[in-house]
């Protein structure tokens, strides 16, 4: 029997707000001394009450709008109850049935919801001990949940790259997977080819930090599921972890259902209401997004899809390119070639400096025709002895003659081009 994968994605992105989700502690926890970015609220001390971070809420709505989502005018926070060492309260403040954004789409993948919650602490395993660092506890965490529209590891990888681009364009997170700012979790199952019903199980692979690893984990799981189904067995609904060293997944725990978390409305945070004016105000802040900018670059600057795709890969590079174009001294196509082929460091080279360099290099190139030939013939006529010596085999004389040409060209010539042209005349 032939099978097809049925894959949905859950993506967690830490928001780059200055403070945490429900308290005033700094949210920049990476590489900080453990347990120094904490307070009674994010440590769940008695009497600590959560105060929502307005910026995090606005940024989540902004991401929802960028993904084409509907923004309900009512939303609320809920308690998600479970016990784990990195969860100091014994519950996580998240969103259950009234998320901030619903029903969007990115490329050919539908977005089910975008909701906001708080991150957990971090477990550190060392010397046969498990330690807990609560610096990350309470950091704003947006979760993007897709519909099960993905059919392959390659499609998942392509979708995640697009989402990463959108997040970075919005400036709401660095989405640095090595730092854990973006964590990827595919939900995987398979079904007989042609079936339209969802499988009765799914396996979630947790906390992957690489697009390539997501692809590999999906391909591994799909093969494992098909092997089990061919034996007449249904894969266990569970959470698994990706083991990079062995290129395989391993079982972690039986996957919970929603009712296992005993969700109920967060009693310490009132429900949130807004109007269309508020939502439209956030929508007006959206930048030109990657797909639209890519299309415009191809149309407006006559770039091919490859060059345009590279230039719009990051908002910073696309902005840099357009700053160069505004100077109107070099064609967009030539600018694109220089930026891409010479791997220009946009942090070190100002647009005006780059354009000046291209103009100067182009001026040197134009010398290689009539003007260069005239100067070479003049130098040959003025230095008959050197030319005669060269013809007798004293090839080192050529360096002298090239130097004379460079002197008359006031340093503008390209020595290699001069050498090649010289050899045509002597």
Task: Describe what you observe in this structure.
- The mean pLDDT is 92.
- Strand 11 (203-206), helix 3 (211-230) and strand 12 form a beta-alpha-beta unit.
- The protein has helices spanning 54-66, 153-170, 211-230, 276-283, 290-300, 305-311, 315-326, 332-341, 351-366, 370-382, 384-391, 397-408, 415-422; strands at 3-14, 74-75, 78-81, 91-94, 101-106, 109-118, 122-126, 129-133, 140-146, 182-192, 203-206, 238-243, 248-254, 264-265, 272-273.
- It is built from 13 helices and 15 strands.
- The protein folds into three domains: 3-282, no CATH class; 288-353, DNA polymerase, domain 1, CATH 1.10.150; 370-422, Arc Repressor Mutant, subunit A, CATH 1.10.10.410.
- Helix 6 packs across helix 8 (332-341), helix 7 (315-326) packs across helix 9 (351-366) and helix 10 crosses helix 12 (397-408).
- The chain is an alpha+beta fold and 426 residues long.
- An eight-stranded mixed sheet has the order 5-6-9-1-10-11-12-13. A three-stranded antiparallel sheet has the order 4-3-14, with no helix packed on it.
């Amino acid at each position: 029997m032939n099978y097809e994968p049925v894959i949905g994605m859950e993506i967690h992105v830490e928001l780059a707000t200055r403070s945490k989700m429900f308290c005033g502690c700094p949210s920049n926890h990476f590489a900080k001394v453990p347990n120094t970015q904490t307070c009674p609220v994010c440590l769940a001390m008695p009497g600590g009450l959560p105060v929502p971070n307005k910026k995090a809420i606005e940024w989540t709505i902004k991401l929802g709008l960028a993904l084409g989502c509907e923004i309900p005018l009512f939303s609320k926070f809920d308690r998600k109850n479970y016990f784990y060492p990195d969860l100091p309260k014994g519950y996580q403040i998240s969103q259950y049935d009234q998320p901030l954004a619903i029903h969007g789409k990115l490329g050919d993948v539908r977005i089910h919801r975008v909701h906001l919650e708080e991150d957990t602490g971090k477990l550190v395993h060392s010397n046969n001990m498990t330690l807990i660092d609560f610096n990350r506890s309470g950091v704003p965490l947006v979760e993007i949940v897709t519909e099960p529209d993905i059919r392959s590891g390659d499609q998942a990888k392509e979708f995640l790259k697009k989402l990463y681009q959108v997040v970075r364009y919005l400036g709401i997170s660095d989405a640095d997977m090595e730092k854990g700012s973006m964590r990827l979790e595919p939900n995987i199952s398979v079904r007989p080819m042609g079936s339209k019903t969802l499988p009765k199980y799914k396996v979630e692979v947790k906390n992957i930090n690489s697009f390539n690893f997501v692809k590999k984990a999906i391909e591994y799981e799909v093969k494992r599921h098909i092997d089990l189904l061919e034996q007449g067995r249904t894969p266990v609904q569970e959470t698994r972890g990706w083991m990079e060293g062995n290129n395989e997944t391993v079982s972690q725990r039986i996957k919970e259902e929603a009712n296992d978390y005993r969700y109920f409305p967060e009693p310490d945070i009132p429900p949130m209401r807004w109007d269309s004016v508020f939502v439209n105000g956030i929508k007006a802040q959206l930048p030109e997004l990657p797909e639209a900018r890519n299309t415009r670059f191809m149309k407006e600057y006559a770039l091919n899809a490859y060059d345009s795709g590279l230039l719009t890969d990051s908002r910073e590079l696309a902005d840099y390119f357009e700053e160069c174009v505004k100077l109107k001294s070099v064609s967009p196509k030539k600018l694109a070639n220089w930026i891409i082929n010479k791997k220009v460091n946009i942090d070190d080279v100002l647009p005006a400096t780059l354009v000046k360099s291209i103009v100067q290099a182009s001026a040197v190139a134009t010398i290689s025709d009539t003007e260069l030939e005239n100067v070479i013939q003049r130098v040959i006529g003025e230095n008959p002895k050197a030319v005669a010596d060269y013809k007798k085999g004293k090839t080192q004389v050529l360096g002298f003659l090239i130097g004379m040409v460079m002197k008359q060209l006031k340093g503008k010539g390209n020595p290699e081009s001069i050498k090649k042209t010289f050899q045509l005349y002597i």
